[in-house]
Design brief:
65% helix; 0% strand
Length: 127
């Protein structure tokens, strides 16, 4: 896999960061050049899984630098919005004031939402 001078400069700049992007940049730089090294040796040298090298090399080849950016991950979304989470966190525990009932209800909704997500994922995996 060959890199342009601009791509190489950006990737080398990214390696100085302490973020997932730095690890991805190191993988691409290790795989760069006219003679592409085996995935297993790059993985061993960088102390990552071979699948990790394969993933980021494939994304870079397909989308270049944009392919190294994080993408939304699958999974359940937050059960509570920021305002709802704040309401739960600040709800007094004293019974009878109405707010503790709201907090308990919001916590139960979050629990049920999580449980539903687990059941949906199980159904998806089982077909």
């Amino acid at each position: 896999m060959l890199l342009s001078a601009d791509e190489r400069a950006v990737l080398e700049r990214w390696t100085a960061q302490d973020r997932p992007l730095a690890a991805r940049a190191r993988i691409v730089l290790a795989c760069a050049g006219p003679g592409v090294p085996p995935i297993v040796s790059v993985a061993r040298d960088l102390r990552v899984a071979a699948d990790t090298v394969r993933t980021w090399r494939r994304r870079f080849v397909a989308e270049r630098l944009n392919g190294l950016a994080g993408k939304p991950r699958p999974g359940r979304r937050a059960a509570l919005g920021a305002e709802q989470a704040q309401a739960v966190a600040s709800a007094p525990e004293a019974a009878g004031d109405g707010l503790s009932d709201l907090g308990a209800a919001l916590r139960r909704i979050a629990e049920l939402d999580a449980e539903l997500a687990i059941h949906r994922r199980a159904a998806e995996l089982l077909g």
